[in-house]
Amino acid sequence: MRIIDSIDDALITELCDKHEFFWLDVTGPTEEQVERLGAALGLHPLAVDDSIRFGQRPKLDIYADTALLVLQGGVESQPENENPHPLEEIHCYISGDYIVTLHRAPYPQLTQLKSLFQRVSAAKSEQYYVYKVVDAIVDSYFPILADLDEEINDLEDTIVAGAGRRQLEEIFRLKRVLMQLRKAVVPMRDVFAREAEAIADLAGLEADSHDYFRDVYDHLIRITDELDSYHEMVSSCTDLYLSMVANRQGEISKQLTVIASIFLPLSFLTGFFGMNFDWEGSHLLTGVWTFIALGLGTMAAAAAAMWWWFRYNGWTRSGD
Predict the structure, then answer these.
(1) How far apart are alpha carbons 4 and 133 in whole angstroms?
(2) Does residue 258 lie in a domain region?
(3) Which residue ranges does UniProt annotate as crossing the membrane (predicted)?
């Protein structure tokens, strides 16, 4: 298989005339380049228009002996919850003579695959090469899922240690990333569930095995299941966050209640002595020690008794 990195009209025409299978991978094609490519390969005008505008949903369109497969590849970044560009749209044109991949930004998974093909000299079937390209794009989600798993576990530990506004923001960012990934993966899963056999049956593709595309479908099912489980984990993080906030508010309320309860008898004593101070000053509080014992002593004794009662019933203990 020949690997080409730029649109060379003469070379493309020569390879198509000889029916020599090739892979053309183009990064950031311009409108003029896509139109040239469409003319050289005889692509359907609707397919060319899709690749000029991009912004397509994952799909598979069959035009005679050529298929346009639109995929969304994953772009890894750390941390994933702050990934500004988690997806890369890739257009794959497939026929018995070629596979063409168009994408706007460099895509490391395809670059690594090209290096692998160049190192391996053993010839493979055309279906195998198509499968490897599609599989490399689909498998790009697995490193992202591994990163998300670690981030969710770290988030849970952080929330338990002390829930704050930053953790709440991370929860919402994770939910957005998971939703973006799921919106990309589910349509691809549906495409391979219903129409993957159409790729294997394209005229001119060397017959090999339909198991290749069933393997891609299995990977997409696994990715979808993991995304669903991670979404549930993030939702449980939201419940955990609310529970921790409620517990903290309960602890604060309990502490304030204890303080208010201690001051309740103190307020009663000061009010009682204050309203009867004239009589008490003439009959009871005749000395300094008497004032200390009756005035301050009763308040200290009341506060100590209240505190002992709270400790005895376990009301002063934390939720730990």
Answers:
(1) 14
(2) yes
(3) 256-275, 287-310
Q: Verify that 241 and 258 share a domain, yes or no.
A: no
Residue ranges making up the domain that contains 295: 254-312
Is 240:160 a contact under the CB 8 Å cutoff? Answer: yes
pLDDT in tens, 69-90: 999 999 998 888 888 889 999 9
Angle, in degrees to the nearest 10, between helices 45-53 and 31-41: 160
For residue 204, the model assigns a pLDDT of 65
What gap in Å lies between CA 295 and CA 4, rounded to an integer?
97
**How do residues 20-64 score in pLDDT, each as one tens digit?**
889 999 999 999 999 999 999 999 999 999 999 898 999 999 988
We report the CATH number of the domain holding residue 75 as 3.30.460.20
The answer to whether residues 71 and 54 touch, using CB atoms and an 8 Å cutoff, is no
> What percent of the chain stands above pLDDT 70?
87
| CB-based contacts of 95, cutoff 8 Å, min separation 6 | 41, 65, 66, 67, 202, 204, 205
Residues 190, 296 share a domain: no
Residue 270's SS3 state is: helix
Surface-to-core class of residue 195, CB atoms within 10 Å of its CB (0-12 exposed, 13-18 middle, 19+ buried): middle
Alpha carbons 150 and 191: distance in angstroms, whole number: 30
Q: What values do phi and psi take at 260, rounded to 5?
A: -65, -35
Question: Structure pTM?
Answer: 0.78
Strand order, beta sheet including 22-27: 2-4, 22-27, 98-103, 87-94, 66-74, 59-63
DSSP-derived letter for residue 25 is E
Backbone angles phi, psi at 63, to 5 degrees: -120, 100
